[in-house]
Amino acid sequence: MSTPRNPAAAPALGHSIKHLVTHLITPLLMCLGMALAYQGAFHQPEPHHLKVAVVGTTPQAQGLAQAIQGKAGDALDVRTVDDRAAAEQQLRDRDLVGAFVPDAKSPELIVAKGNSDTSVVAATAVFTTVTDQQGVPLHVTDLTTPAKGDPTGQGLFFLLVALSIGSYASVAAIGAAGAGLSMRIRALVGVAVSLVVSVIGIVTAGPVFHVVDHDYAAIWALGWLYSAGILLIGIGLHSFLKRWTTLAMMVLFVMLNFTSSGGIYRPELQNGFFGGLHGFWTGAGFLEGARSILYFDGGAGVGGHVVTLLVWLLLGGVVLVAAAMYEGRGRRLPEPRQDAEEEMEETVAV
Fold first, then answer.
1. pLDDT grade, residue 256 (50/70/90)?
2. Each residue's pLDDT tens digit, 332-343
3. What secondary structure letter does DSSP report for 336?
4. At the N or C end, where does the chain have fewer CB atoms within 10 A?
5. Per-residue pLDDT, 7
């Protein structure tokens, strides 16, 4: 006896496969974006206008600086400074990566590793070549004191990662579970969540792991500004993008953000695209601001980094206003429960 055929089976299968393929687009685009961003930013670090100096006013110091510049080309920006005090001040202002003090028996390179450990490594390699030709060892002096739990100075980057993930993942939760709330309420929830995220960040980075060992309040404030900017932008974007919000947030606050933050390589070791983003992207604002507070006594341009974070927070407010107007005109459609749950799953998986 033959099995009855179900004419609805084929169309149902086709619909399920189409639905599956549609939802695979987001993770595959995330894969492509992460591959392009991370490999594009980090695959071949090499100096670009790395700022170094030779200390001294003698003809020999001038000649050495010119010789190094001529050999390095665009890889280095070599200058001379009058004396050690001037060199140290420029290092503390984060205007230099390294300052070389020539000496026949004990040449010295003065650095500030709190600025960027990888940039210091590049500068050290340059002047080690010089001292190797002299047949004497190079003595390296660091003007900054790393935190007990962060000897390389890169722990702040991982704090940035934690703050970022806590913030953009919360956007999906607020957008999905809070879809029935007014934009004002969702915005207030976002601000409250950013407070929680920033507290988690400073507690784990401070008392738990000792990545931050002083100025807790200042680092926490930077973290709150940073997190609030991400959340407000994301909550506003969700009104327009719905289930594509997670992908947009990944692009803005992971792919372009982590790679341009200076956490692994600062602009002088990156290509022009990511080096250019470093000047105004929000992750760089947080990370460089935190470095200036922790390692350079709150100087070295910290005010500019705070302004960067405030601009991104203001941008979040603008996006929220636009989203509120959009929803107020009746264009907001209820998000299907299934799509909302899938967006949450994608965000948690990331």
1. very high
2. 545 554 554 455
3. P
4. N
5. 57
Write out the E strands in 136-275. 139-142
Q: What does R_g of the chain's alpha carbons equal in angstroms?
A: 25
CA distance 332 to 239: 7
Query: Pairing relation of β-strands 50-55 and 98-101?
Result: parallel
Note every long-range contact of 67-73, with CB atoms under 8 Å and residues 24 or more positions apart, other chains counting.
68/126, 68/130, 72/47, 72/126
Taking alpha carbons only, the member of 202, 207, 195 closest to residue 167 is 195
Give the pair of three-digit tokens for residue 212.
Answer: 């931050």
pLDDT at position 14: 74
Please give the structure tokens belonging to residue 304: 């500019």
**φ and ψ at 140, to 5 degrees?**
-105, 125
Strands 108-111 and 98-101: antiparallel
Q: Is 73 left (phi over 0), alpha (psi -120 to 50) or beta?
A: left
Q: Per-residue pLDDT tens for 53-79?
A: 999 988 988 999 999 998 888 889 999
Q: Would you say residue 143 has pLDDT above 90?
A: yes
The Cβ of residue 282 has, within 10 Å, a number of other Cβ atoms equal to: 28
Q: Contact, 243 vs 149, CB < 8 A?
A: no
CA distance 140 to 138: 6
Closest of 126, 313, 322, 349 to residue 230, by C-alpha: 313
Residue 129, token pair as written in the block: 């070549």
Separation between Cα atoms, residue 348 and residue 350, nearest integer Å: 5
Report in angstroms the alpha-carbon separations of 41 from 35, 120, 206: 10, 19, 29
CA 322 to chain centre: 27
The pLDDT of 114-142, averaged and rounded, is 91
DSSP-derived letter for residue 73 is G
- Name the band, by pLDDT with cuts 50, 70 and 90, for residue 348: very low
pLDDT in tens, 88-111: 999 999 999 999 999 888 899 999
AA letter at 141:
T
Pairing of strands 139-142, 50-55: unpaired
